[in-house]
Amino acid sequence: MTALTLSTAGAATLRADALVVGVAKGAGSKSGDLVLAPGAEAVDKAFGGKLAAVLATLGASGAEGELTKVPAPEGLKTPVVIAAGLGAAPEKDGSYDAEALRRAAGAAARSLTGSKKAGFALPIASVEDAEAIAEGALLGAYAFTAYQAGENKLAPKGAKAGGAKQALAEVAVLGAKPRDKAFKAAAERAIALAEEINRARDLVNTPPNDLYPESFAAVATAAGKEHGIKVQVLDEKALVKGGFGGILGVGQGAARGPRLVKLAYTHPKAEKTLALVGKGITYDSGGISLKPAGHNETMKCDMAGAAAVFATVVAAARIGLRVNVTGWLALAENMPSGTATRPGDVLRMYSGKTVEVLNTDAEGRLVLADALTRASEENPDAIVDVATLTGAMVLALGNRTFGIMSNDDAFRTSIHEIAEEVGEASWPMPLPADLRKGMDSPTADIANMGERMGGGLVAGLFLKEFVGEGIAWAHLDIAGPAFHEGAPYGYTPKGGTGSAVRTLVKLAEHTAAGDLG
Questions:
Q1: If we measure between CA atoms, which residue out of 205, 213, 232 comes closest to residue 221?
Q2: Is the pTM of the predicted complex or chain greater than 0.70?
Q3: How many Cβ atoms sit within 10 Å of the Cβ of residue 25?
Q4: What is the DSSP string of 90-111?
Q5: How are strands ordered across the β-sheet holding 446-447?
Q6: pLDDT grade, residue 129 (50/70/90)?
Q7: Calpha distance 444→351 (Å, rounded)
Q8: Residue 216: pLDDT above 50?
């Protein structure tokens, strides 16, 4: 993991492999002109006051995501200066948007793979700015190299070293106040959050021959011991005894059995309890309703919801939030075999309801249903489930935005506002009552499929059936942003992204503060 320091050094005196400064598009009458952001003063002085002109000559515009590298002149202790675009310069109070800072820091850190140390002299007008820069840099520096030659953990014997470049080793944030309690706390939060998001990314990126229900449960158990979290693992025998028909039904076609993992972080002064439920399909072939060619290759990511829940509980423990956070990881492999659930089978769920399985590729809602019912038994103040649940949500919102459904409009609005606050794209979605009829079954209490149009909303309506009465519940469908197949951007890497973790941690913080009622 990349190290983080709040440096007392000035931009001109810091010894590092590179120094990152911010540039923006001029506002008002200077629109279109390149503007140096606060923090770049000493660097501009070393350039004789001509840094903006040099960067403009090289084509820099200040656009978000843009990076321009120039050799450093005499007077700086670093060989390279990187100008990171922040978008439009602020017109009023002079403060930059936290997400713009986060993305700029992430893009710069990502470009410095293989470097030992980089200084970030981006504009800091508040503690929140420093935290955003630290968070973005730590997330942008992420690299998954466990299976590449040169990373000795999992590389085959005899593999030649040098096949994997390591992430930026150290991030030094300039302009913060290392001795200030608020800045120290912000740095500690950024480290804990980024490390857990990156752990979630690692889990999503791990191939399914190494990450399966039992091994995922082992990772959770080890983390629980390290961070004082109580962990309970229900194996196949315990699931049978408990009547978890949804989880068992999904996992019965696989050689490796399912698990239900409970992680409980408690705080002695907590007044509220938040329950989180994660879909953990460690590989999804579609089961008997096999996925078509071209849709299987990335299905190791179908446990991203469980990874997000796991990361959130651990982050809450590390930060020491005054709220009880319970995570439920519903883990299974969805495989076709002679023992697999067939279309037309009826499963008796943990709630006692029966479900006619019309499509075995609509399996996530089955494991979540059991976990939602079990979570409801503990009567938490709220439940949020997270899942890569439907392709329909990707069609509706694209690859970067997750959908939010809820049985409580105010709760749904709060989560949407929180997601915006932390820089995660989301959108509130309805649960139209008329779509419920499509899941009526002549054989069972409900079918696991309904109308094709609005399929993401149908899935939400199915889950709602298994939430305890009177409990505020929300469903986050992260099918789009959980796994990024395109080129990296900002602090978002190719592969697992850690989607929803920042939203869930901030939700836990608001719950601890009593902001959600």
A1: 232
A2: yes
A3: 19
A4: PSSS-PPPHHHHHHHHHHHHHH
A5: 346-348, 354-356, 446-447
A6: very high
A7: 14
A8: yes
* Beta strands at 402-406 and 324-334: parallel, antiparallel or unpaired: unpaired
Catalytically annotated residue among 45, 77, 177, 291: 291
- Sorted by sequence, the CB contacts under 8 Å of residue 465 that are 6+ apart come out as 353, 369, 446
Is 365 labeled as catalytic in the residue annotation?
Answer: yes
| Cα–Cα dist 89/27, whole Å | 6
Residue 152 has pLDDT above 60, yes or no: no
Give the bridge partners for 71, in sequence order: 80
Report in angstroms the alpha-carbon separations of 72 from 18, 47, 78, 81, 504: 9, 8, 7, 6, 41
What share of residues in the chain are helix, strand, coil (percent, to 5)?
A: 35, 20, 45
Amino acid at 276: L
Q: Which of 330, 316, 303 is nearest to 203 (CA)?
A: 303
- Find the mean pLDDT for residues 32-58: 94
Q: Parallel, antiparallel, or unpaired for β 67-71 and 230-234?
A: unpaired
pLDDT score recorded for residue 150: 58
Tokens (6 digits) for 460? 């939400």
Residue 276 phi/psi, 5-degree rounding, is: -120, 135
CA distance 142 to 432: 40
CA 383 – CA 364 distance, rounded (Å): 17
Q: Give residue-wise pLDDT tens across range 324-375.
A: 999 999 999 999 999 999 999 999 999 999 999 999 999 999 999 999 999 9
d(CA 268, CA 78): 48
- Classify residue 18 by its DSSP letter: E
Task: Quote the pLDDT of residue 120.
Answer: 98
The top-scoring range by mean pLDDT among 6-10, 88-92, 446-450 is 446-450
Residue 348 designated active-site: no
Report whether 112 contacts 141 (CB < 8 A).
Answer: yes
What pLDDT sits at residue 31? 41
Strands (E), 175-270: 230-234, 259-265
Out of 25, 259, 365, 412, the active site residue is: 365
Element counts in the chain: helices (H) and strands (E): 14, 20
Beta strands at 273-284 and 382-387: parallel, antiparallel or unpaired: parallel
pLDDT in tens, 484-500: 999 999 999 999 999 99
The beta-strand segments (E) located in 202-357 are 230-234, 259-265, 273-284, 324-334, 346-348, 354-356
For residue 412, give both structure tokens.
């749904």
Mean pLDDT estimate for the chain: 95
Residue 120 burial (C-beta neighbours within 10 Å; 0-12, 13-18, 19+): buried
Reading the block at residue 492, the tokens are: 């978002």
Q: Is the pLDDT of residue 447 over 70?
A: yes
26, with CB counted inside 10 A (0-12, 13-18, 19+), is middle
